[in-house]
Amino acid sequence: MKALINTSEGLIFKTVADPSPAPNQALVAVRAFSLNRGELALLAARTEGWRPGQDVAGVVVEAAADGSGPTPGTRVVALVEDSGWAELAAVPTARLAELPDEVEIEQAAALPLAGRTALNTIRLGGNLLGRKVLVTGATGGVGHYQVQLAVLSGADVTAVARSGADYGAAKAVPSITDAEGPYDLVAESSGGESLHHAIAKIAPGGTVVVLGTSSGAKAPIDVYDFIGHEGARLVNYMSYADPSPINRDLQTLSKLIAQQKLTTDLGFHADWTQIKVALDELRHRTFRGKAVLTIQ
Ligand SMILES: NC(=O)c1ccc[n+]([C@@H]2O[C@H](COP(=O)([O-])OP(=O)(O)OC[C@H]3O[C@@H](n4cnc5c(N)ncnc54)[C@H](OP(=O)(O)O)[C@@H]3O)[C@@H](O)[C@H]2O)c1
Fold it and tell me: Is the CB–ligand 1 distance for residue 107 below 6 Å?
């Protein structure tokens, strides 16, 4: 099969052996995959022979030998640890979900890491009915799902989007400094000064979920920043340590897409031969939402 392999000169297409699935793994023909900001850092750090790719959608070609998971021919979405940017992927059945008919493969491929991160970071705010929520990085893969999921939860949502954007039920502001707090939940992924401002906007006892630093900057914070925001908590989220069952989260997200309660902003869509262009566009944030590449 053909696969994308990382090298010190960048990504290359290479013919490699088909995966040999473990008993708990289904063999999936990958039809589309999406990119995540974190993968830019992984590609820079893991050069020699690493096989990238976490978000995949496709069709089961071989069911798991232990009898778990779907049968051949089933359309699925999956979150794998790596090696997903390839024609075939061996996927633990606990990490995949069957797709409802209404969900297109490209929409599904956008969901795994960004959607699951959005789902579980918004859940960290508890019951959000009537609560105030602030989302930074709202034009991004994770952020645009966080905004929609917080609105769905009944919150009064403000989206921080440098470019300005239409967020339906949510208000949009160009900078976190323009956001009118206090907020019960802030989902913070921009890092640096943005985290500093997030604390300045949090209600006493509220929750700031610290999940990323898209700006690459460090946050200068100390105890005095919490005066007026007493009892507020900073909660870290790391998807790799999230105990929420992946198959169930992917089912939840796919169902919301099928019901048109959640939509994916597909800002970049091309054939997987365009991978280098897609990574450059992501690096420079020339599009909104998610980049999805399809395998013909
Ligand atoms: N902790 C976890 O488990 C987890 C999981 C997934 C992602 N993450 C992190 O969450 C963040 C968002 O991930 P993503 O995949 O959604 O990324 P993305 O699609 O590239 O979105 C990045 C967002 O951050 C905004 N942003 C603000 N300042 C920025 C800057 N200086 N440089 C680049 N972007 C900036 C962008 O706004 P513009 O559109 O205006 O550029 C965009 O809305 C990343 O830091 C990622 O590493 C963490």
Answer: no
